[in-house]
Amino acid sequence: MAEGRIAPFEHGESVKKSDLRYAPSFVPGKEIEGVPKTPTAYTVLDIGNYLGRRRSNGERINGGVDVNTRAALDALYLLEVRAIKTFDIKSMNWSRLGKFVADMKARPSLGSCVAYFNLFG
Predict the structure, then answer these.
(1) What does the alpha-carbon distance between residue 87 and residue 84 come to, in Å, rounded to a whole number?
(2) pLDDT band for position 86 (50/70/90)?
(3) DSSP code of residue 1
(4) Is residue 29 within 8 Å of 83, Cβ to Cβ?
(5) N or C: which end of the chain has fewer CB within 10 A?
(6) E strands of 64-115, at which residues?
């Protein structure tokens, strides 16, 4: 996306800034300096729809976010801010990964890790 190989996603006013991620980053709500935000902004829902993720009954996931897509993007976010290492997640199935990243994101220590990354990353 950041290189322009995928067309930009359109976002209305109802999309929360905290839900937007800006390619090439995976950190939600963090704009990258020097990169135009509109062409590279995406959400978990955008990626799920782009990948054709569907509910188990075959319906497109338009009103809700695919849990596996969220788990994958959140794991990439945690890797980016150095809160976890690839070793921590490489043998996990989707269910375990989703629970693991939700637990990691809920930890107060993640806030200081993200703050450190924003300063020195």
Answers:
(1) 8
(2) very high
(3) -
(4) no
(5) C
(6) none
Please state, in angstroms and rounded to a whole number, the distance separating the CA atoms of residues 102 and 74.
8
Both tokens of residue 120?
């020195």
> Measured between alpha carbons, how far is residue 17 from residues 43, 87, 90 in Å?
10, 31, 30
Can the peptide bond before residue 28 be classed as cis, meaning omega within 30 degrees of 0?
no
Residue 110 in 3-state DSSP?
helix
Structure tokens at 39: 């062409």
**Least reliable range by pLDDT among 51-60, 75-84, 89-98:** 51-60
Q: pLDDT tens across 31-51, in order?
A: 766 655 555 889 988 888 888
Is 70:98 a contact under the CB 8 Å cutoff? yes
pLDDT of the residue at 76: 93
d(CA 48, CA 44): 6
DSSP state of 19: G
Spans of all domains in the chain = 17-120
Q: Which two tokens stand for residue 3?
A: 């290189």
Name the strand (E) or helix (H) holding 71.
Answer: helix 67-80
**Contact of 36 with 28, CB cutoff 8 Å:** no
